[in-house]
Specification:
Blueprint (H helix, E strand, L loop, with lengths): L29 E3 L5 E4 L9 E8 L2 E5 L5 E5 L5 E3 L2 E6 L42 E4 L2 H18 L2 E4 L6 H8 L7 E5 L7 H7 L6 E5 L28 H9 L5 H11 L8 H14 L6
Parallel strand pairs: 1-7, 8-9, 8-10, 10-11
Antiparallel strand pairs: 2-3, 2-6, 3-4, 4-5, 6-7
Length: 295
């Protein structure tokens, strides 16, 4: 599987493994300004930088849109942007040509087909036997979102995603799973921030064959970019109230959680519709459970 670099995470350990076929990083790599690519401008400090997805470019400039729908235009200068914290030079995507006959495995444009996660789509192949390693997520909605964006990639590498229905029983689940070399367990946790219940439970897991990572959002819904579902931002819900129900009330949506989730899921069509804090974590888990030799 080919994919992007990991994103940043508040509790990540800074490690960034890769599958053997991933693109090697150059000193200051040039990256095509593909629509949906999430970058930061490199000017200023970490608190003032503008972070957004590429929504267009012309005449040596690129337009970025942040999570609130605000847009800004930046020149395409050398090392003018940060991709997952590393300097890159954005370059225009080449204009699609119309070759007389497309190369095998390539679309008519001559560029490799991509999955919803942004990975280069693998050639058609027989279904693979599932690995012993697994990725666990907290709930059904998490599993459905991961399947929609990374399903093709996961099938290509033979990884099954299961859901926990909450993190409270994670230590017991890890014990029952019996992780070992060649039988690794990756766990994606909602609201994994310093001082939270989730962070304390994650810290209690100690095994070289288990990786627990998380995103800072209180629920997987909030890992979907608000602009993707046509809202300005996800509402604040007072502590002590059910978050999903509070969101529906604040947005004026019908009070049915299942239908609201389907509405959100239909709006997600690619990785560009998700926040980088989730993208990086799922990529990290896929690498962890498919590391070379972990068969």
């Amino acid at each position: 599987m080919w994919s992007r670099q990991y994103g940043s995470d508040v509790l990540a350990d800074g490690q960034s493994g890769r599958l053997g076929r991933r693109r090697a990083r150059r000193e200051v790599p040039e990256v095509e300004a593909e629509r949906g690519l999430v970058v930061e401008d490199s000017a200023g400090d970490e608190h003032s930088r503008f972070c957004g997805a590429v929504v267009g470019y012309e005449k040596g400039a690129v337009t970025l849109e942040d999570r609130h729908g605000k847009r800004r235009v930046f020149p395409l200068g050398p090392a003018a942007f940060l991709l997952d914290g590393q300097p890159v030079t954005l370059v225009p995507c080449p204009s699609p040509a119309a070759p007389a006959a497309p190369a095998a495995g390539l679309p008519i444009s001559g560029r490799p087909a991509r999955t919803a996660s942004g990975s280069v789509a693998p050639p058609a192949a027989r279904a693979k036997v599932a690995r012993a390693s697994r990725i666990y997520v907290e709930g059904k909605h998490d599993a459905e979102l991961v399947e929609k964006i990374w399903g093709d990639d996961l099938r290509d590498v033979g990884v099954v995603v299961e859901y926990l229905e909450g993190i409270d029983d994670l230590p017991a689940i890890v014990t029952r799973f019996s992780p070992a070399a060649g039988r690794r367990l990756g766990v994606l946790v909602d609201h994994l921030v310093a001082g939270s219940k989730e962070s304390r439970i994650a810290a209690s897991i100690s095994s070289p064959d288990v990786l627990v990572v998380g995103h800072p959002f209180i629920d997987i819904w909030a890992a979907v970019r608000p602009s993707a579902v046509g809202i300005e931002r996800w509402p604040d819900v007072p502590p002590g109230q059910p978050w999903k129900e509070g969101v529906l009330r604040a947005l004026g949506w019908p009070p049915e959680v299942p239908s609201a989730w389907q509405r959100i899921l239909r709006a997600v069509t690619s990785y560009a519709d998700l926040e980088p804090e989730l993208l990086g974590r799922v990529e990290e888990l896929i690498d962890f459970v498919t590391v070379l030799g972990n068969e």
